Amino acid sequence: MYRMMIIAGAILAAGAAAGLGSQARDKPADAAPACVHHPMKDTRIIDERTVGVSDHHGHVAILSLSGPCARGNPQALMVELKDMTYQLCGPNDADVVDVDGPVRLTCRVTDVKLMSREEAESFAPDQGPW
């Protein structure tokens, strides 16, 4: 009886793995990612309440901020991830901090739009290639 349960479990696990593999193959290469991963490669200011970040895999996230945190120097912006997953998937995953100037300014992320590099270039064409 125990041996049959192990065999049945192995068959179910193999079937599930095969199903996940086909889903990954069916996803287009330029589709929006599920998350942006740390370390961030690039940070761009779109406007004072909108920041774009990309990772080394070419995934891009457009972050809407709770206030005017992007004061002009993209090198002074930090994305502080709130947990140890090192992923930015939604608004509760990070804060944006501007360390330029006399006061450190922290803003909550209110919305995250995950997109491919091509989508980001059409979303913010003046930002150049991501």
Helix content: 10-25%
Structure summary, number of beta strands: 8
Rough outline: globular
Gyration radius from CA atoms, angstroms: 19 Å
Largest sheet: 6 strands, antiparallel
Class computed from helices, strands and strand pairing: alpha+beta
Q: List the uncertain runs.
A: 1-27
H/E series: HEEEEEEEEH
**Structure annotation, total helices:** 2
- Mean pLDDT score, rounded? 79
With strands numbered from the N-terminus, the spatial order across the biggest sheet is 2-3-4-8-7-5
Instruction: Kindly report how far apart the N and C termini lie.
Output: 57 Å
Strand content: 25-35%
List keywords for this structure.
130 residues; disordered N terminus; 2 helices; globular; 6-stranded antiparallel β-sheet; two-stranded antiparallel ribbon
Q: Could you give a quick summary of the protein structure above?
A:
With 130 residues, the protein is an alpha+beta fold. The chain has a domain at 36-125.
